[in-house]
Amino acid sequence: MFLAYYLPLFADAQGLSISDIGRLFMLNGLIIIYLGPVISIFAKKKIKNDRLALVIGSAGWAFSLIIFAITGNIVGLVLTLIVMAMTEGFCVVAQNDYFLNLKAVKEIGEDVAVSYFEITAKVAEIIAPIIFGWVLIMGATKGMWTFGIAILVVTLLFFIISNVKEISNVKNIKEANNSE
Questions:
Q1: Rounded distance between C-alpha atoms, residue 38 and residue 17, angstroms
Q2: What is the pLDDT of residues 134-171, one digit of tens each?
Q3: How far apart are CA 103 and CA 84, in angstroms?
Q4: Domains in the chain, CATH or no CATH each
Q5: By C-alpha distance, which of 45, 44, 32, 5 is closest to 140?
């Protein structure tokens, strides 16, 4: 949402030309393309759990918004884009791996599950400008702080809920093995 909806508005308000705004998009893309695979390989070696990589990635996206909230200037915008690109470089891979390894995905099949995933992503893209506009009603700085903190809270909830569910699944597996 930040890249697609807010960056052009903020950069234009700061007096950047269309060409400079395009360069910011290219900077983000180049970091994803060139650093993404390196970061992804490094993260795969260091972080064995895709769920933990998702949590770290979500925290990275939240941190990037908080960077912008703290600075509120072009330098902060560039730092935000760099952190977002680096995060996307490894988190999207972890997201896909985590999703494809879910029990429900295995039950309904990857093709059907990926189609549901894509539909959900498209709905999120439709809703995103509304949410982002609502956040920015608070003002750019306060809105970014609020959004960054909200992402951290949702990430923490995901981590707790998925941990509880995994612990429950492990207990069920152990009980099933013991009863055999």
A1: 32
A2: 888 888 888 889 989 999 999 999 989 888 766 555 45
A3: 29
A4: 2-179 (1.20.1250.20)
A5: 5
